[in-house]
């Protein structure tokens, strides 16, 4: 799966020289993050205008439409994570109202899909990591802060400043004992 600054999203297969499908043509907002869900049957694309779009991967048409597309943040959606069976999605980004980390239910109408919005990360959240064993979300922000959320209780558990500049990467070890942050500095 490839995404570009021009907004194009294409899927390739290792053994084929041509793309399998073009999910999105050039001329859209820049792609900020893309993931497959754990089952490999859906892919999601976040963009610089605050949208998250999700497609079924097993498309037979050359230009399929996403089965879900909604504006998660008013400025940009920087990262997202499929939670559990992919019907729950967490997003991070920047919104005018500082609701910069959100939980969404993909099985209800788009007008009711926002489950919870966390007011956090002045100037926006840049990265997001889901810890399934502990049911936690970890987010990093533009000002170097890290927030840890309990998604069952829908509350902020911890916050601390990890860096002097924007957190650009988060990684979680497989046993979920540790996580690592990387910054712009």
Taking the alpha carbons of the first and last residues, their distance comes to 29 Å
In the CATH hierarchy, the architecture is 7 Propeller
Anisotropy-based shape: globular
Radius of gyration: 16 Å
What is the CATH C level class, in words? Answer: Mainly Beta
Protein name: DMXL2 protein
WD repeats: 118-159, 160-185
Keywords: WD repeat
Organism: Vidua chalybeata (Village indigobird)
Description:
- The protein is an all-beta fold and 185 residues long.
- The chain has a single domain (2-183), classed as Methylamine Dehydrogenase, Chain H.
- It is built from no helices and 17 strands.
- The chain has strands at residues 2-3, 9-11, 21-24, 31-36, 42-47, 51-56, 68-71, 76-83, 88-94, 99-105, 114-119, 125-131, 136-141, 145-150, 155-161, 167-172, 179-183.
- The protein has a 4-stranded antiparallel beta sheet with strand order 4-5-6-7, with no helix packed on it. A 4-stranded antiparallel beta sheet has the order 8-9-10-11, with no helix packed on it.
- Strand 9 and strand 10 form a beta hairpin.
Secondary-structure blueprint:
Blueprint: E1 2-3, E2 9-11, E3 21-24, E4 31-36, E5 42-47, E6 51-56, E7 68-71, E8 76-83, E9 88-94, E10 99-105, E11 114-119, E12 125-131, E13 136-141, E14 145-150, E15 155-161, E16 167-172, E17 179-183
Antiparallel strand pairs: 1-2, 2-3, 4-5, 5-6, 6-7, 8-9, 9-10, 10-11, 12-13, 13-14, 14-15, 16-17
């Amino acid at each position: 799966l490839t995404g570009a600054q021009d907004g194009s999203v294409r899927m390739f297969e290792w053994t084929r020289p041509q793309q399998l499908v073009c999910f999105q043509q050039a001329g859209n907002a820049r792609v900020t993050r893309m993931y497959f869900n754990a089952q490999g049957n859906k892919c999601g694309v976040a963009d610089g205008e605050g949208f998250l779009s999700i497609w079924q991967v097993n498309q037979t048409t050359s230009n399929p439409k996403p089965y879900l597309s909604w504006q998660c943040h008013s400025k940009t959606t920087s990262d997202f994570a499929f939670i559990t069976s992919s019907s729950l999605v967490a997003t991070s980004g920047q919104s005018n109202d500082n609701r910069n980390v959100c939980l969404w239910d993909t099985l209800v109408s788009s007008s009711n899909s926002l489950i919870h919005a966390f007011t956090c990360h002045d100037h926006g959240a840049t990265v997001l990591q889901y810890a399934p064993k502990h049911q936690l979300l970890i987010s990093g922000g533009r000002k170097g802060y890290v927030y840890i959320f309990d998604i069952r209780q829908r509350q902020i558990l911890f916050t601390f400043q990890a860096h002097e500049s924007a957190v650009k990467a988060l990684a979680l070890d497989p046993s979920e004992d540790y996580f690592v942050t990387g910054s712009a500095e």
